[in-house]
């Protein structure tokens, strides 16, 4: 069964508490607060450093959902 990860915008602590209480007891749901601060990788000014990652680690982009609705949901399949 798929696991649901619900990410709540850091600016919405009341919404985080509400969703966490609403989903309490559902072992297939994890509710977390968004902890990202943007892209931490900054190129050095003195030289060009090509992107080393082959792809972005994030499987699902929920930035728009967090900005508009205050939360987003990601389905995680067991690997």
Plain-language structure description:
The protein is built from 2 helices and 3 strands. It is of the alpha+beta class and 79 residues long. It has one domain (1-36, 56-79). The chain has a 3-stranded mixed beta sheet. Helix 1 links the parallel strand 1 and strand 2. The protein is globular, with a radius of gyration of 16 Å. 9% of the residues are buried. The model has no long low-confidence stretch (mean pLDDT 82).
Task: Give the SSE map.
Elements: E1 3-8, H1 13-22, E2 29-33, H2 63-69, E3 71-76
Parallel strand pairs: 1-2
Antiparallel strand pairs: 1-3
Overall pLDDT confidence: 82
Strand order of the largest sheet: 2-1-3
Tally of domains: 1
Overall morphology: globular
Structural class: alpha+beta
Distance between the termini: 11 Å
What are the low-pLDDT stretches, counting only 5+ consecutive residues below 50? none
Residues in helices, as a percent range: 10-25%
**Total count of helical runs of at least 4 residues:** 2
Radius of gyration: 16 Å
Q: H/E order of the elements?
A: EHEHE
- The total beta strand count reads 3
Fraction of residues in β-strands: 15-25%
| Biggest sheet record | 3 strands, mixed
